[in-house]
Write a structure and sequence with these properties.
The chain is an alpha+beta fold. It has an eight-stranded mixed sheet, sandwiched between helices. Strands 2-1-3-9-4-7 form a six-stranded antiparallel sheet, with no helix packed on it. It has a six-stranded antiparallel sheet with strand order 12-17-16-15-14-13. Strand 14 (about 385-390) and strand 15 (about 390-395) form a beta hairpin. The longest helix is centred in the last third of the chain and has 35 residues, at about 545-580.
């Protein structure tokens, strides 16, 4: 079945094979004239089709290498080497078949995403009388925000949703590249495209299908598949000198030998399959490899630009830092213990939606503190939460809110970049929980790696205040900080940065303009920042800054492989043409040898699918580079 499909995609191959067999049989039985006419008709038809395609390409402004193939086929027919001309047809059509195979192999990880797209969702509804529940299957596009979904074992999560089941394991490898199952608890966000484990789960839809993470990834994948790599155009630029050298060598061989057949023998070794096929195969391999590593690149142009990056700019929050404040200190008031304050605060924070709540709950879990269920709870929007837990009244929130509820209250001292949630228990000030958005552990190593690998200019562009940005920059090894920036300020500074190309890395909606303005914009998209992802040239699907360095590594490796493949094809072809000038390689043998050259070059191009990447643990182990920070406060701005 697979063979039949391949032959339908490349009908010239069976036609040329049948013609070759018929020509050989006719020649062996003394019917040489008939054999020559059959070969001439079949090869002539192929030449005509190739010539029409070449003219179309020239009208688009592209001079390709097809002229060499046409000259070689015409020359072999003219000197009576019609078996060699048929082998050239087989070689060219076989090269197209190899390209098709290599492209399918290289796109495997990308197309797997498309094939797994969720189509159906199980929506839970009441039976109309309030006595039971019904589960109905609906197209995923009809799921509305707020719908309660049933996700069965091994099913794909259809839309981004909030988990309602207490604890569920999901396979997120198609989204993040993480091979181990990830455990999610009630209240956490589960992204579409994740695969449920072995238990039934319930979740509430947070976004419609079109706005969910998986659909955003699919859109990026489609752009990546439809892109045409610049190195293909680079291969086209080799066409004129390679064609000139080939015709010169063929003409010189003819002139020196006085035999027209020598021209054909040289030209059969100049067919351009390696140049036409190897470069796009390498770039497709780079796109596939990056997708497998949790990086979606929007096309070959991004790979080439990444390979040449010389400057880098980073946003702070959510990029160099995790964007999730983590607990750094518990400061209990007199009469309370740290465990008591943290445990009760985490229990109350189960019913809160403010920005620091998740960090407090996570810190309690890490310390083995079990959150208790509240008898009663209420939240005052943007201020705090009050809950009755085990007979005790617990308040967690902003200082003004807590101070209004307790007679004695004391603020705690905070360093730059820190925030505090204050706690009151049974009407008494119980202490403060100090949180900070610390740098990602891999950030210093990534900055150092980029600097060691030719990225000389590295800056931070942030909307935060200088007092918050400078300590983070110092910890990760960035010397130049531009703080308190509006989106248009970031765009202006990015346009002025040099040397080029410039890589910008960000994650928020406010980063979208500068990601679009940079030579290559990379969005940290693990948390579903769709606006940034749409504006960027690449999206990191894994919550790790190390993937930025991997993207640059993949870009450089892919371009090296593509260029090497081109030069291997040129070098082997020229060397064989020089040998053929002596007359020791007959036309038929030369055509067969060139087929081996094509195969070797394409197989080399597939090396772009593999290659060493710096282990992520090595980024976390590195120390930030020493340096004197330069602060640039671009006027008093609203923090973004």
């Amino acid at each position: 079945m697979a063979v039949l499909k391949a032959l339908r995609r490349q009908p010239v191959i069976p036609l040329a094979l049948l013609t070759l067999v018929a020509v050989l049989v006719l020649s062996a039985t003394g019917q040489g004239l008939i054999a020559r006419w059959i070969a001439t008709i079949v090869v002539g038809g192929f030449v005509l089709g190739t010539l029409i395609q070449m003219i179309r390409e020239m009208l688009r402004g592209r001079f390709g290498l097809d002229v060499l193939a046409i000259v070689a086929m015409v020359a072999t027919l003219a000197v009576g080497e019609y078996v060699a001309s048929l082998i050239i047809v087989l070689m060219l059509s076989g090269g197209e078949a190899l390209e098709d195979f290599a492209a399918r192999r290289a796109k495997r990880e990308l197309t797997a995403l498309l094939e797994r797209s969720p189509q159906t969702a199980h929506v839970v509804t009441t039976d109309g009388e309030g006595e039971g529940e019904l589960v109905r299957d609906v197209p995923v596009d009809e799921v509305a925000i707020g719908d309660v979904l049933l996700i069965r074992p091994s099913e794909i999560v259809p839309v981004d949703c909030e988990l309602l089941t207490e604890e569920v394991s999901f396979d997120e490898s198609s989204l993040t590249g993480e091979s181990l199952p990830v455990t999610r608890t009630a209240g956490e966000t589960v992204l579409s495209g994740a695969v449920n484990g072995t238990h039934i789960a319930r979740a509430r839809a947070l976004r419609r299908s079109a706005d969910s993470q998986y659909q955003q990834i699919l859109a990026l994948v489609r752009q990546a598949q439809d892109s045409r790599a610049p190195v293909v155009r680079l291969a086209d630029r080799f066409a004129i000198p390679f064609t000139a050298v080939s015709l010169l060598l063929g003409g010189l061989a003819w002139a020196l030998s006085g035999e027209a057949v020598r021209f054909a023998e040289v030209l059969v070794l100049a067919t351009p399959c390696p140049l036409l096929i190897a470069a796009p195969v390498a770039f497709l391999g780079g796109l596939s490899r990056s997708a497998k590593d949790g990086i979606v690149l929007k096309g070959g142009a991004v790979i080439e630009t990444l390979s040449r990056v010389r400057s880098a700019a980073f946003d702070k929050t959510g990029t160099l830092t995790r964007g999730r404040p983590a607990l750094v200190d518990v400061r209990p008031a007199a009469g309370f213990t740290a465990e008591e304050v943290l445990g009760l605060a985490a229990s109350a924070e189960q019913y809160s939606s403010h920005a620091l709540a998740a960090g407090i709950r996570a810190a309690a879990r890490d310390r083995g503190l079990v959150a208790e269920t509240a008898e009663d709870a209420s939240e005052v929007a943007t201020n705090g939460v009050m809950a009755r837990i085990g007979g005790r009244t617990v308040v967690v929130g902003k200082p003004a809110y807590v101070a209004s509820l307790v007679p004695e209250f004391a603020r705690t001292d905070l360093a730059a970049g820190q925030a505090a949630a204050y706690v009151a228990i049974d009407g008494r000030h119980a202490g403060a929980l100090v949180l900070a958005d610390a740098p990602r552990p891999e950030s210093p190593g990534v900055v150092a790696w980029l600097r060691d690998h030719g990225v000389g200019q590295i800056v931070m562009l942030t909307g935060d205040t200088a007092a918050t940005a400078d300590p983070i920059a110092a910890q990760v090894g960035i010397a130049e900080v531009h703080a308190e920036l509006l989106p248009d300020d970031k765009v202006r500074l990015a346009r002025d940065l040099s040397p080029r190309p410039l890589m910008m890395v960000g994650d928020g909606v406010n980063d979208a303009p500068v990601l679009a303005a940079a030579d290559v914009g990379i969005a940290m998209g693990a948390k579903g920042a769709t606006a940034a992802g749409e504006a960027a040239d690449a999206v990191i699907l894994v919550d790790s800054l190390a993937k930025v360095a991997h993207a640059v590594e993949i870009g450089r490796h892919t371009v090296r492989v593509a260029l090497t493949a081109i030069w291997i094809g040129i070098g082997l072809s020229v060397a064989l043409m020089i040998v053929a000038m002596t007359g020791v390689i007959p036309a038929v043998v030369g055509a067969l040898v060139q087929e081996l050259v094509d195969l070797a070059t394409i197989l080399y191009a597939l090396r772009a699918l593999r290659g060493p990447l710096t282990p992520e643990r090595s980024f976390a182990a590195q120390d930030p580079a020493d340096g004197i920070r330069t602060r640039h406060d671009d006027s008093e701005r609203t923090r973004l």
